[in-house]
Amino acid sequence: MDKALSGFRILDMTHVQAGPTASQLLAWLGADVIKLEPPTGDVTRGQLRDIPDADSLYFTMLNCNKRSITVNLKNAMGKEVLTDLIKKCDVLMENFGPGVLDRLGFSWEKVQQINPRIVMASIKGFGSTGPYADFKAYENVAQAMGGSMSTTGFPDGPPLVTGAQIGDSGTGLHLAIGILAALHHRNRTGRGQYVEVAMMDGVMNLCRVKFRDHQRLQRGPLPEYSVPTQGLAATPRAGNDSGGGQLGNAIKCKPGGPNDYLYVVVQEAVWEALAHRVGGEALAKDPRFATIGERRKNQAEMWRILNDFASQYTKWELMKIFNELDVPCGPVMSTEDLMNDEHVRLREMIVELDHPQRGKWYNVGMPIKLSNSPVEIKRSPLLGEHTDEILTEVLGYSQDHINSLREAGAFSKQPAKVPEYHEPRVD
Length: 427
Prior knowledge:
With 427 residues, the chain is of the alpha/beta class. The protein has two domains: 9-205 and 342-407, 3-Layer(aba) Sandwich (Rossmann fold), CATH 3.40.50.10540; 239-252 and 261-331, formyl-coa transferase, domain 3. The protein has 17 helices and eleven strands. The protein has a six-stranded parallel beta sheet with strand order 3-2-1-4-5-6, sandwiched between helices. The protein has a three-stranded antiparallel beta sheet with strand order 7-8-9. A two-stranded antiparallel ribbon has the order 10-11. Helix 2 (57-60) links the parallel strand 2 (32-37) and strand 3. Helix 1 (18-28) crosses helix 7 (169-189). The radius of gyration is 26 Å and the shape is elongated. The two termini are 34 Å apart. Pfam families: CoA_transf_3. This is Formyl-CoA:oxalate CoA-transferase. One of its GO terms (biological process) is oxalate catabolic process. One of its GO terms (molecular function) is formyl-CoA transferase activity.
């Protein structure tokens, strides 16, 4: 079946999480993603292993629908293979440290010379320019420096990282958008371009509403916050406040376990019905809660009343009660809840796959649903599983040529038997 990105070929040199998130998404959309790995493989194949000698879930959950080729880029003939792959691909993705590809002889200028139509997409911690350009970054470093940690948690506690991987996976999503835009532009102009996303920049974009509130502080306190904001110079941590125009918070339900909470948004339109259900006519007519402005002033008391009511019900029972009133709400769902949820399975957001090393396992599904391009999720590749296939089908190499490259160390860790290095061919 023809897919949304059928016909596009992506050379994926990224590793760990941010880049593989982007390339997996593009592979699910139908692009032919060739994962180029060193002979030792993507480092995550062996990280956080739960089954000895099998690719870890860290790797398998980020590399579905890809083909794997191993190439030794420290070998002259390995560089020849990379050069030929660049000629045949629409996109080259990388997330090496600053200057690594340049030292290998594959700067953006050289890549563009090899294939003027190619899009080169890079993920960096802090970008290729600026005083932080040479700093190393990880997921939580990006959260710390992008504004997320300083605004997550409670005012009387330390800054916290989020459970969602906004520094890595969030950056990968930004890169996928940039790649698609660059391909669209290439198809109009015939020229590729360089796309860069910095993890710090991506986190800042996802913290956009916090910068909204930062500027509002210059003109007075933020009434929707449950913590004092008068005189603050920076957006504070505000626990589970909604952060929007309507009040919201998590209320505790029975039996009182760590995830026995329901998140509730008290919209203006639903307050009267909600108040009647929780506290009868007395609460519905209470002047302290008559308008959203009054509820903001007295939200501590409002949440106390709602928490008292919630203590009589489980989160699922309370969700049913509030949904009947059209109150926006949702239970705090654990990973166990989600893995066994009927709605999640129906939406194919938990998908069972089979792996030759691991056996049966589960991956998170494709969140983007296209009516005419349904996604079929396939397992991640074994290390170098498609090396010969790619060399013959994509590059048109003969078996004799492949054998000579293999003997020269182009695909292995072994010392090269062809020591001389010459500049990548541009013809």
